[in-house]
Amino acid sequence: MSINRRQWLARLAAGGAGLLLPSRSFARAESIRARSSGGGAAPALRPEAPPSPSPRPAGCPLPLADFQPRSMLHVAEHKVLRARFPVIDIHTHLGWSKGEEVSFLATPAELLPVMDGKNVRTMVNLTGGSGAGLAQSIRTFEGAAPGRFLTFTEPSWHRVAQPGYAQWQADEIERAKRAGARGLKVLKTLGLFLRENGTTGSLVKIDDPRFDPMWDACGRLGLPVAIHVSDPEAFFTPIDRFNERYDELGNHPDWSFYDRDFPSNAELLEARNRMFARHPNTRFIVLHVGNNAENLGFVSENLDRFPNTVVDIAARIGELGRQPRTARRFVDKYQDRVLFGTDAVPPPDGDKYPQQVFKDELYEIYYRFLESEDEYFDYAPAAVPPQGRWRIYGLGLPETILEKVYHDNAARLLGLA
């Protein structure tokens, strides 16, 4: 007698005793054989109908884009609506610049209610532009709400091929400091997009000596440099079934640096490190967990090697939260060099990037990650995880470390302490 698992479960539901008895068709056959043992031919048995196939889900196969599984885990959930300590968000984008023109994404009046509700004392606008654009950024935000916003300036990349650029850019950093800039922001334009002729020609390397006077000026003036020169490792590999960011790169194929004339991720980080080594007196905020959140061992080596560097956690809790024990040890060890940041972009622009859209839910997820030990929760306010199909686990940092990460480390770096 054979019985499949589904039949077994059905009989279990009907009553345990039946499990010890042969199946109905088997018992009927045995009874017929017993009656016919005295002679005569046994009547032919009607074959039992084959089991019907298991039903398939409607619409199977399901397109990956429509797959939104709901966790069946029953685990603790803690809403953290307000940070335990005042927060300095070291990494936000309140506008975009082009040359000396700046377009703003929100007004102070639109930002302050969320900031007040979430205990965000100060937002640092990294993309404050340069020249007249920088002055306009400072007037728009710091003029309207003193102490609530700080502004970083940006290099004038469009001048890089002009004679005398190196000294001009260093002098421009001094002018930006006098105008009120609190630091310099370097986008991944440097290393991945900036070319000798603007958009044509060979890529300009991160450690190009033309920028040495700029880095030195920042060190001399006490302006920290927030630098982002690379992206997740998956952005440098084929967009295929093995790529854990298949969804993200499918939605943003222009984010891929694979199979074109871009440097590898390793080459970018090596060039960055050569530059760090040449400028030990300049302080660098190495954004997105040192530009390599997937490899905290490597980030640790760099922090040990370059004492003039710190990191922020902006847009990388999706990476940190899926390695919570390693990440907790990392934050414990470098608790004086980890800064709070979100990479927040106000809507509607921010709606394109759920992991960094400026709204209440963004800060609540960051606070839950840092303050609770909750398990397996979303790292972004989105129906589908935007960076990769995984969830995260909270670090449960103690108050002494929380206060440093939320506020004190950035305050010291920015001269606010």
What's a concise summary of this model?
This protein is α/β, with parallel strands linked by helices and 417 residues long.
Describe this structure as you would to a colleague.
This protein is of the alpha/beta class and 417 residues long. It has one domain (87-413): Metal-dependent hydrolases (TIM Barrel, Alpha-Beta Barrel), CATH 3.20.20. Helices cover 35% and strands 9% of the residues. It contains 15 helices and ten strands. The strands form three sheets. The chain has a five-stranded parallel sheet. Strands 1-4-5 form a three-stranded parallel sheet. A two-stranded antiparallel ribbon has the order 2-3. Helix 5 packs parallel to helix 7. Mean pLDDT is 89; it is low at 1-45.
Topology at a glance:
Layout: H1 5-14, H2 24-35, E1 87-92, E2 95-98, E3 101-104, H3 108-118, E4 120-125, H4 131-141, E5 149-151, H5 165-179, E6 184-186, H6 189-192, H7 212-221, E7 225-227, H8 246-251, H9 265-278, E8 284-286, H10 287-290, H11 296-305, E9 309-312, H12 317-320, H13 324-333, E10 338-339, H14 360-371, H15 399-413
Parallel strand pairs: 1-4, 4-5, 6-7, 7-8, 8-9, 9-10
Antiparallel strand pairs: 2-3
Helix pairs in contact: 4-5, 5-7
Question: How are the strands ordered across the major sheet?
Answer: 6-7-8-9-10
Molecular shape: globular
Rounded to an integer, what's the Rg over CA atoms?
30 Å
CATH architecture: Alpha-Beta Barrel
Structural class: alpha/beta
Q: Mind describing the biggest β-sheet? A: 5 strands, parallel
Helix content range of the residues, please? 25-40%
Question: What is the assigned CATH homologous superfamily?
Answer: Metal-dependent hydrolases
Number of helical segments with 4 or more residues: 15
What is the CATH level 1 assignment?
Alpha Beta
Low-confidence stretches: 1-45
Average pLDDT level: 89
| CATH fold topology | TIM Barrel
Give the percentage of residues in beta strands.
5-15%
Quick one: how many beta strands? 10
